[in-house]
Amino acid sequence: MVLGHTVLAMVGSRPARVRCNTCQGEHNYRGSAVPARKAEPRDRPAVTSWEALLAKKDLARARRYTVREKFAEDEVLNHPVFGIGLVQEVRGDKIQVAFKADVKTLVHGRV
CA neighbours within 13 Å on the CB side: how many for 102? Predict the structure, then answer.
């Protein structure tokens, strides 16, 4: 386990004696026990602009949102408060919709 230490003495540019900040014990500097970690590349989803999401969609065909209507993935809807939205995911009676300002989870298909 690597804990925080305070340097008490230096020899040149290298620490020689340290004090453990947890137990207050003093000992000779042992060097870095943990090898430096290399940054691993992460697979990140591509960021798409709002305009690019709706570029190929016919906004005139956007259906007005109500909880009674059922929507499908990749369908455009018109919400009375949030405006035009694109359904990104359907999970049972809930849909995840991307609006210009935010992504919202809404219910659908309720009678």
Answer: 6
Q: Where are the beta strands (DSSP E) in the chain?
A: 5-11, 14-20, 26-28, 63-64, 76-79, 83-91, 94-99, 103-107
Percent of the chain predicted with pLDDT > 70: 86
3-state secondary structure 59-71: HHHCEECCCCCCC
Query: Are 41 and 91 spatial neighbours (Cβ–Cβ below 8 Å)?
Result: no
Cβ neighbours of residue 28 closer than 8 Å, sequence gap 6 or more: 16, 17, 18
Tokens matching residue 33: 């026990």
Question: How many Å separate Cα 20 from the centre of its chain?
Answer: 36
* pLDDT of 11 higher than 90: no
Q: What is the pTM of this model?
A: 0.57
> Which residue, 56, 61, 45, 60, is CA-closest to 103?
45
What are the boundaries of each domain within the chain?
1-34, 50-107
